[in-house]
Write a structure and sequence with these properties.
Elements lengths: L2 E7 L10 H6 L2 E7 L15 E4 L14 H14 L4 E4 L1 H9 L4 E12 L2 E2 L16 E9 L6 E5 L7 E4 L3 E4 L11 H7 L1 H6 L4 H28 L3
Parallel strand pairs: 1-2, 1-3, 3-4, 4-10
Antiparallel strand pairs: 5-7, 6-8, 8-9, 9-10
């Protein structure tokens, strides 16, 4: 029997990218929808066998500007209460944290570029071990408190809460191990040109780093997701 995986996009250019192949290889049929699509409000998020929440430049606390957050979180809560398999990436991890009752807020600085994460003792015994010392892409300025009842898995010098899980069915990643081959990175750089300049980050150099470090990031990320999917009921 075919299993279903629903990808929730919060902006059109942040999609499943490198995680698509291992998810399909595990026997899931991928479908996707934008959170701003009027049809999104009618989707029962408890139904798909797997839900993947992607990133976006907005903050979970910007509810007035993005009213779909409240509806998404309310429906995601029902899914998490049912312990249904769920993966969150960057903004997606922050949405999961908020759904589980943790605070989400701006971090001390923007964290943009490639560098490894450091696994906790708990993280070293999870699928995140597949990352090793591989530099992964970071692109965020928000963070969250660790939700009650979850395991802390990874950190970086700027952001201690880089990943957490709850059992085998819930995995939240602040970093982008899915990005490294997808050409939509050009949209990321273009849309963030002003903020990158303000941080002293050269978009051209970032693109060179993407070509140089991205393929290994995706390979490690795919190995991580393959291991995690194999643990799902």
């Amino acid at each position: 029997m075919t299993r279903t995986a629903l990808v929730i996009r919060h902006v059109s250019y942040e999609d499943i990218a490198g995680f698509g192949d291992p998810i399909e290889a595990a026997g899931y049929t991928l479908d996707s929808i934008d959170a701003t699509d009027p049809a999104f409000a009618d989707i029962d998020l408890a139904v798909p066998d797997l839900v993947v929440l992607m990133g976006g430049p907005m903050g979970v606390y910007e509810r007035d500007a993005h009213p779909w957050f409240d509806h998404e979180i309310a429906r995601l809560r029902r899914r998490l209460d049912a312990d249904r398999p769920t993966l969150g990436i960057c903004l997606g991890s922050q949405i999961i944290a908020a759904t589980l009752g943790a605070d989400v807020y701006p971090g001390p600085v923007q964290e943009i570029g490639f560098h490894p994460v450091t696994l906790t003792d708990a993280g070293a015994n999870t699928p995140l071990a597949a990352l090793g010392d591989t530099p992964v892409l970071h692109w965020h300025g928000d963070t969250f408190d660790l939700p009650e009842g979850t395991e802390w898995l990874a950190a970086s010098p700027l952001y201690p809460h880089q990943a957490f899980r709850r059992g085998n069915t819930l995995l939240a990643l602040q970093f982008h191990a899915e990005m490294g081959l997808d050409p939509r990175i050009d949209r990321w750089i273009e849309n963030a040109a002003e903020s990158l300049a303000g941080l002293g980050i050269d978009g051209t150099t970032l693109r060179v780093d993407y070509d140089r470090l991205g393929p290994a990031c995706v390979t490690a990320g795919q190995a991580m997701i393959t291991r995690w999917l194999a643990m799902l009921p």
